[in-house]
What we know:
The structure holds two protein chains of two kinds.
Chain A: H1 16-22, E1 31-35, E2 38-42, H2 48-55, H3 59-73, H4 77-85
Antiparallel strand pairs in A: 1-2
Chain B: E1 8-10, H1 12-27, H2 33-48, E2 52-54, H3 56-64, H4 67-76, E3 78-79, E4 81-82, H5 86-93, H6 100-111, E5 112-113, E6 124-127, H7 130-138, H8 140-151, E7 165-168, H9 169-175
Parallel strand pairs in B: 1-2, 1-6, 2-3, 6-7
Antiparallel strand pairs in B: 4-5
Helix pairs in contact in B: 1-2, 2-9, 3-4, 5-6
Amino acid sequence: MEKLIVDDDGKVTIPPHVLAKRGLHPGDELTLVEADEGLLVYQRGLDPLTARWWKGLSDDERRQAEAEARSYEDLSEEERDRIWNDGAESLEEGAEGDEVDLPTK
Amino acid sequence: MTSRPSSVLFDKGVIRRVYERHVRLAVGRPPTLLQVEAAGAYARVASFTNSLWITQQTANILHRRTPVFAASILSDCRTFKKGRYLRRWARRLRDFDFSAEDVIVLAYASFGVSADGTQIGTEAVVTADLRLATRYEDNTAEIERRFMEMITALAGVYATLTLPRVFTTADVLTIL
Lengths: 105, 176
């Protein structure tokens, strides 16, 4: 977390170590988002693993991904929650039969 | 800088947001900030360790989703089985007012075991749930006391198990 001070001209300075860590250069664009939590500075672009995943898809796979993504995005929030809450694990003693003994060192 | 954990368990909420970050990219819609934060944290962790773990429930959900989105996550992360006493510890964690889902994740981080038995638990849990992280931090001393009380009464390898550190996705991006 960094604290930034607004100067007389309304400018803020991002510390050099943050610029270096985020790979930012003069002229790069940042987006200022007014969220419930306050002002957030958002660096557009893809994280390396999302970029790797996307670049690794063939044209056919990208078409399939787009179709599947539209179908997923058309679901209501409740329907998505149901997908991600499916198969919740029981805490009950009676369910402990699937626990495995840890190996001895 | 906080020391980087050598092994990490992602809770389901983080994996869901990483998945949905991919969905948004494929459909050409801007991601939410929480999706960007989760995907960024996931990538940051993967940059310093390849010991990435998920629970059985998360793996089961991903296996039922379309491979074009799920396969890369299932390839990056390995799945823990439930070790003996996992649920017993999870039930004790309920005394700290964690949700049922939270206690299972925390218990996996101590009592989860890899399929080949070479990995038990993880050094850290990464969660998108600020409430979980705050509650864990607020109760750390008592959780440690209860954990030690439980494992010292157990024999063999169980007595050597450890508690994880808990990081939010924002923590990962700011202090790791």
